[in-house]
Amino acid sequence: MRYIDLRSDTVTLPTDEMRTAMAQAAVGDDVYGDDPTVIELEQIAAQICGKEAAMFTPSGTMANQLAIMTHTKRGDEIIVAKKAHIVAYEVGAPAVLSGVSYALVDNIDEIIRPQDIDELTRSNDVHFPSTGLLCLENALGSGKVVPLDDMKAAYNTAKRHNLPVHLDGARVFNAATYLGVDVKEITQYCDTIMFCISKGLAAPVGSLLLGSHEFIAKARRNRKMLGGGMRGAGILAAAGIISLNTMTKRLHIDHENAGYMTEELNKINGINVDMAKRDINLVFFTISKDGFNHNDFPKYMEQNGIKINGISKGSYRFATHNNISRSDIDKTLLIIHDTLIK
Fold it and tell me: How confident is the model at residue 314 (pLDDT cuts 50, 70, 90)?
């Protein structure tokens, strides 16, 4: 049975072109640095993002944690938004792996601004930890895209404090699509960046960490320490090359489908879509119907061929991606409509 899977864009399936490329990929040993397909992927990624070098990693979480580990020393403090993926969804790894603590920014819109950096950057006082890194995110996990002016202001402020800047750009190509700019317009405002090829870009595995030659050389040693060295990884990198060359150019379709879903969901009595979080391929909404059973809703949808996550912090999130068509959305809308009018 084919399911309509709206849980996340992490559930995308590799395309037929990717499967063919993976089967035919030239491979080597990435720890020795001689996998030709991995090397090609890293070179393409670095060129696209305007960075000197890149490193292929198994996951975005590993890439983010490698960035923190490589930028900081134990006992440092990192400035990061309270709801950032690094804080909320990476299992407390900065404390465990890098021995750093958080200086949290708790703005309603989750955007870190110059005054936050000025306030949270520690002075050279023996009682305080050293501020070691500013971590930004774009697009945000809330579905919002951070404007370029805010990126620039945060970056320039960090530089004034001699802080390196890491960007969690898991969906940075979605952000660039929304803004209508080349991704370099975003990545110019960070020293290092992580982006995922296994979300909306449809590769089966992997993320890239990018930065200077010196930074990536140091990060490679840390990757090996964490068990992230891979053999024959060209099989995976082959799909990533297609992600960057092909799939980045179709993300507007996912955004349009999310926009369509937003408008149609909002027409259903009892559903309220968060219209402030509709920049990319994510749709956030609440259901307010007397007697509605939120616990049973995901199971009911799955019985009707649709996979969704349960309610989280009062709302639902649907994600559109390469495997979600307009007809899939229409089927989903019909089932939800019929459920709520019962």
Answer: confident
Q: How far apart are CA 330 and CA 39, in angstroms?
A: 42
Polymer length in residues for the chain: 342
The answer to whether residue 342 scores a pLDDT higher than 70 is no
- pLDDT of amino acid 143: 95
61-65, long-range: CB within 8 Å, 24+ apart, which pairs? Answer: 61/89, 61/90, 61/91, 61/93, 62/207, 62/223, 62/226, 62/228, 63/194, 63/207, 63/208, 63/209, 64/90, 64/135, 64/166, 64/168, 64/194, 65/90, 65/93, 65/94, 65/97, 65/98, 65/226
Select from 234, 239, 144 the least CA-distant residue to 201.
Answer: 239
19: left (phi over 0), alpha (psi -120 to 50) or beta: alpha
Provide the 8-state DSSP code for 249: G
CA pair distance 221, 66, nearest whole angstrom: 10
Dihedrals φ, ψ of 211, to 5°? 180, -155
Give the span between the Cα atoms of 250 and 322, in whole angstroms: 8
Question: What is the CA angle 233-324-292, rounded to 5?
Answer: 120
Is a pLDDT exceeding 90 seen at residue 111? yes
Q: Which residues contact 335 (CB under 8 A, 6 or more apart)?
A: 301, 304, 306
Q: Which residues contact 185 (CB under 8 A, 6 or more apart)?
A: 148, 176, 179
d(CA 99, CA 93): 9
* Mean per-residue pLDDT, 118-135: 97
Q: Residue 29: what are its φ and ψ, rounded to 5°?
A: -120, 110
| Distance of alpha carbon 201 from alpha carbon 204, whole angstroms | 9
